[in-house]
């Protein structure tokens, strides 16, 4: 028989020690008969029932419950016997306590979305956190709340294991609940590299595939997180389930899923998004178009990505304007030249091939100008890129070329000479045929378009309606022949500043050599063009030489 000490507190300590030593029940009964109390705390609010649960002493637990102990008594931290048994996964004790009337939820519902942190979580949270599946299921079967809110979110927001996700969803957890960072369970699952199982599960229970975060997470959608994970399987699944590839973002400075794929350098992901319908020319007034993103610095697999974008219809000359001051963002070519200290000729060739304009002016004079972005192609090791740009240049600014302090003297001289002596019409057309999207598409459809020929005709005076402004020796006359042209078809050719189009089986072109176009001579009003869509584009201001050839052949 154990020694019986005087004083209730000593008896309580003796009762706790006896339970810890798992002495026979008769000794525990003697202590109770001698005055030990089943509901009196021993230390720090711990009751004898807590000790019995801690030791997993099932018989002592039953004895204490029979003797009337409070099954919901808490210690100083708020732990009950059910908390302890759930945390340690003692299923038989959890079942006994629940049958004896233990409450499954203890935290009061304050109505707060993210209630203050307490020292004690719910028994269900403890069971799930310690991966006691059977205990968690037992608690849910007895009414535990699957949507209980904590400081960092609901039960479902705090779970990543598919097994526990399914368990909570089965018992009614909200698949679209958000955590403190405004993330949904589907967003968290999508950003896991092996999250396909969880994504499938959440979608099957109604998770929103187009849910969006707030500003703290850059207004990202589920698709953003899937793209960041690099899991093409998840991305493909989300797209099939209706995830939006193109959406209105509240903040235009934030990247789209396509932009993120480009920034990651993931060629496969970029191709998948474009094939699925992502807008290749979707533009932000802050970061520009996807092609602008691809031309920025530190992009892996840049060449492959730029090629995919251009082949998918990206416009290298797209005009994007700032919302703040309506200023135009610099074009993709200028972005590439300015942002990359080690430019690659293949990227420049790609941009030129697909029609990127080369305007040898400053952006102050022309928003499409690249003259103040040539510092990275001026060094000797990149000078071949500079020569390529000079060959493709279509407009020049003498004044700013002279003032440019980043180019070497011989480079400036080359630019000046190139501005004074435009390349031939035939050479321009060859370049255009390789570079302009609509012409390239026509070539694929009918190779006979390549049979266009140019014939230099004897010099003669220009037509009467032009003779008042220009003298005959300022022109060269070409006859352009193409098997596909008919008298009813119009071909508009805008070439070095002056163009005359005639309705004939060929097209007579009066080509100015070096003259300057000013706004005082709107030549388009003199041209015998009957089509209402006869715009030749806006003529530039005084002092600008235009060398670009544009061919538009409707219905070819």
From TrEMBL:
Keywords: ANK repeat, Repeat. ANK repeats lie at residues 44-76, 77-109, 123-151, 181-214, 218-250, 253-285, 289-321. Pfam families: Ank_2 (PF12796). SUPFAM superfamilies: Ankyrin repeat. InterPro entries: Ank_repeat_dom-contain_49, Ankyrin_rpt, Ankyrin_rpt-contain_sf. It comes from the Eukaryota. This is Ankyrin repeat protein RF_0381. It comes from Eumeta variegata (Bagworm moth).
């Amino acid at each position: 028989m154990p020694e019986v000490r005087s004083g209730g507190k000593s008896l309580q300590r003796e009762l706790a020690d006896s339970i810890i030593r798992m002495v026979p029940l008769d000794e525990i009964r003697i202590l109770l008969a001698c005055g030990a109390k089943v509901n009196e705390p021993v230390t720090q609010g711990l009751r004898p029932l807590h000790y019995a649960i801690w030791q997993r002493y099932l018989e002592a637990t039953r004895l204490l419950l029979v003797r009337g102990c409070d099954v919901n008594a808490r210690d100083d931290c708020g732990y009950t016997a059910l908390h302890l048994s759930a945390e340690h996964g003692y299923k038989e004790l959890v079942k006994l306590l629940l049958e004896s009337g233990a409450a499954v939820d203890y935290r009061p519902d304050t109505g707060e979305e993210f209630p203050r942190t307490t020292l004690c979580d719910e028994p269900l949270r403890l069971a799930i956190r310690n991966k006691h599946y059977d205990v968690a299921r037992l608690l849910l079967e007895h009414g535990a709340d699957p949507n209980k809110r904590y400081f960092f979110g609901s039960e479902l927001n705090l779970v990543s294991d598919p097994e526990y996700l399914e368990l909570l969803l089965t018992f009614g957890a909200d698949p679209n609940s958000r955590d403190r960072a405004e993330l949904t369970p589907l967003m968290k699952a999508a950003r896991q590299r092996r999250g396909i199982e969880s994504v499938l599960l959440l979608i099957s229970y109604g998770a929103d595939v187009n849910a969006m975060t707030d500003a703290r997470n850059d207004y990202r959608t589920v698709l953003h997180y899937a793209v960041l994970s690099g899991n093409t399987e998840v991305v493909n699944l989300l797209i099939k389930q209706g995830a939006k590839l193109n959406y209105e973002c509240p903040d235009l400075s934030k990247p789209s899923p396509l932009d993120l794929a480009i920034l990651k350098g993931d060629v496969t992901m970029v191709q998948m998004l474009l094939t699925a319908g992502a807008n290749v020319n979707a533009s932000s007034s802050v970061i520009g178009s996807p092609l602008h993103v691809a031309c920025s610095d530190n992009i892996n697999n840049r060449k492959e990505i730029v090629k995919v974008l251009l082949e998918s219809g990206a416009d290298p000359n797209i005009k994007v304007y700032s919302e703040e001051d309506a200023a135009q963002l610099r074009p993709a070519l200028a972005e590439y030249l300015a942002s990359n200290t080690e430019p690659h000729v293949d990227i420049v060739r790609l941009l030129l091939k697909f029609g990127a304009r080369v305007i040898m002016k400053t952006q102050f004079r022309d928003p499409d100008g690249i003259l103040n972005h040539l510092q990275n192609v001026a060094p000797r090791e990149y000078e071949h890129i500079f020569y390529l740009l000079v060959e493709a240049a279509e407009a020049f600014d003498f004044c700013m070329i002279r003032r440019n302090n980043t180019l070497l003297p011989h480079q400036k001289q080359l630019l000046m000479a190139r501005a004074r002596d435009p390349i031939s019409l035939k050479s321009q057309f060859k370049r255009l045929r390789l570079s302009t999207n609509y012409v390239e598409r026509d070539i694929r459809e009918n190779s006979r378009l390549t049979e266009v020929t140019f014939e230099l005709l004897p010099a003669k005076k220009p037509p009467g309606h032009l003779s008042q402004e220009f003298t005959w020796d300022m022109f060269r006359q070409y006859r352009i022949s193409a098997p596909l042209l008919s008298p009813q078809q119009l071909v508009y050719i805008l070439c070095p500043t002056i163009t005359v189009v005639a309705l004939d089986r060929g097209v007579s072109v009066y080509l100015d050599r070096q003259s300057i176009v000013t706004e005082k001579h709107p030549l388009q009003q003199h041209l015998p063009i009957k089509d209402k869509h006869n715009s030749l584009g806006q003529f530039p201001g005084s002092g600008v030489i235009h060398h670009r050839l544009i061919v538009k052949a409707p219905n070819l």
